């Protein structure tokens, strides 16, 4: 039998402990599947004395990532987190020391993936990051290998379980964003500082990585248009239902004439679309290839077990001797693709307004639309008492984002419109 | 750059022509992804003169599979079909000649997979069959590599698009089986001889293969319990809807104490289950792993494009130098696992009866249930004119299949019960 694959793990939080637990529980099974054992030889974490529920017997303890990078091992697993700092230092040091690198760190890969891939591939090493995107769903492998016969035309997905949980719960209960977010924090589904999740940054990291794999292009995190879910009101979920839609925070990337469009924002999607059925903390990705058509991948996007599953899948690939280009084509060949700005989006839109219920209001609003050649599809106005503020929602036919934005600006300046108009993009998918 | 991977293709039907079309269209893209070209060097098919819409210029023509197996090439792609005959001859000859083998042939793999894997692995060759299961969905790779960190506890899936199309259309239109099947044949979704599809054989082939990958066991096609969809009546779909279920032909495999249960039969599944949402000709597979939890894979299960996508994914793996155990563990280590017979199933059931509407009928039926300790959950009886035959459906709580079968036999012999009772298993999933 081949000698064991010797593994050094940095970071023993939930995912690190889960990874050690998995490797311990399935020691014999993994040896059978890989033709060699997967053996943890070294670890590094902040607090040596904390009880993590896993045995560290026989595993060398290192106090610094510099020391771990040079520890006895074939692979370094980075589970520290963060786009720079200790995680980046470790990644560079591990590759420089001739170790394969496995990471669950989406921020690190979104910001430094191509640089690290060039170093890794130049040295004949693997850089693997399945756990960085969509947790336990093997979507990086699916795109980079399973669909590798196709030109990928577009991908879209629910990439953040916290946002999907919040939106699902708001719809099911009618409660508002702050209330549901607070509950999600209490349940451990959302961080104390939820902005990475609810403002769309986490989804954007993952989307930028998937785009690179799908289109064989340099990661361009700065080119991702990002809008989170704080603006979604319970009323939007009610109107979406009435109009035949669900509201989801999606990451979308599409190859278009002139480059790649990458965006993360709330979308109204038809209730019958596969992505609309994905509820709660689940993640899902839909990939469209020119020969295969549409394929869907769904599962748990976070948590110790699913993330450990993805980390160990990468370790198994390495143990089996697999070597594929990190982002689907050799890193040395990756080029930046021109970003297609959000202003170029063409599609339908939903707009919610709060207006004073008096004669002429609708005429003023529709005049603004006409001025920018925006064509209305439906309008719903709910009656309240005369003189009170009433919500008006409308959907408009395909129009360019720039024109829609200008029309909404003009509408927002009408004296009868009481709050900033809220716009949600409708995606047919 | 590494020399091209030279490919010999046997069979130029829809899938063969689709594979050649894909390789031609994406020649440069695949060379970039693999670091070498994928070059078709030889083909073999029945009719040399048929126009297949793809160019055979510069490709050597062979009249026999024996000749093709020894043609200039690194890989033989078998797209002939059938569990034995030319396909099996070619597979053995190709491996004996030192060629990797890629096939889309589920019957061949279900019947001869372990034998061929032992030959291939013994010779350091790849045997790859992603296209044999669920068309374009990379489910073999997903299970064997993406989820390889997990003990797989169970899998279930819609593995035959024809059956799913027929059941979906019956539900949507209220038309009966023969009518919808005829239409499916006219549309090209069903074969002239539909029995492989509608009697569940095709699903059973695929399930037996997936079981082997999931559980690292010898393929045991003979142990799969198989029941098709011919017995499903429009009335069953109406009652299923009323009871909160959808009817799907599922393949299910589960590791149980004492072995593996493998079965293909119509199931009533809760409308909210992921698999219930999969409609029309689509396929889907749900895999449950001990660390990852449940993951779902959905997409087109047949057709030239999706199947070519899967065939080429296998070729790309080979071109990139990938080597993983054919069925997730080394073929030499694969063992038969004891089959768990269908009689051991414990679960709820749905039963439809046609009865004479006269006093005492229900008392007789419920007495039969009582005699076998079967506990009724719901009963629905639709009134017709007195003395006419009426349908009665009931669902029963968890009970062993053997007891349920005995109760149904007894019910079927009651003089007031007019047709053979029809039973459908309910799966909570």
Please tell me what the overall shape of chain A is. Answer: elongated
- Helix amount of chain A: 25-40%
Query: What percent of residues of chain A are in strands?
Result: 25-35%
Number of domains of chain A: 3
Runs of chain A in which pLDDT lies below 50 for 5 or more consecutive residues are none
Name the CATH architecture of the largest domain in chain A: 2-Layer Sandwich
Terminal-residue CA separation of chain A: 49 Å
Biggest interface reads:
A-B, 58 and 58 residues
User: Which structural class is indicated by helix and strand composition of chain A?
Assistant: alpha/beta
Topology, please?
Two copies of one chain form a homodimer.
Chain A: E1 5-10, H1 14-25, H2 27-34, E2 38-44, E3 60-62, H3 65-69, E4 75-78, H4 85-96, E5 100-103, H5 106-122, E6 127-128, H6 139-146, E7 152-158, H7 161-173, H8 177-187, H9 195-198, H10 201-215, E8 225-226, H11 234-243, E9 245-256, E10 259-270, E11 282-289, E12 293-300, H12 304-319, E13 346-356, H13 361-371, E14 376-381, E15 389-400, H14 401-412, E16 422-426
Parallel strand pairs in A: 1-2, 1-4, 2-3, 4-5, 5-6, 8-10, 10-16
Antiparallel strand pairs in A: 7-9, 7-11, 9-10, 11-12, 13-15, 13-16, 14-15
Helix pairs in contact in A: 1-12, 4-5, 5-10, 7-8, 13-14
Describe what this molecule looks like in 3D:
The structure is a homodimer of 429-residue chains. By secondary structure, chain A is an alpha/beta fold. Chain A folds into three domains: 5-132, NAD(P)-binding Rossmann-like Domain (Rossmann fold); 139-301 and 332-342, Dihydrodipicolinate Reductase, domain 2 (2-Layer Sandwich); 345-426, Alpha-Beta Plaits, CATH 3.30.70. Helices cover 36% and strands 25% of the residues of chain A. Chain A has 14 helices and 16 strands. In chain A, the strands form two sheets. In chain A, strands 7, 8, 9, 10, 11, 12, 13, 14, 15 and 16 form a ten-stranded mixed sheet that branches. Chain A has a six-stranded parallel sheet with strand order 3-2-1-4-5-6, sandwiched between helices. In chain A, a hairpin with a 7-residue loop joins strand 14 (376-381) and strand 15 (389-400). In chain A, helix 1 crosses helix 12 (304-319), helix 5 runs parallel beside helix 10 and helix 13 packs antiparallel against helix 14. The mean pLDDT of chain A is 96. At the A-B interface, helix 2, helix 6, strand 12 and helix 12 of A face helix 2, helix 6, strand 12 and helix 12 of B. Strand 12 (293-300) of chain A pairs antiparallel with strand 12 (293-300) of chain B.
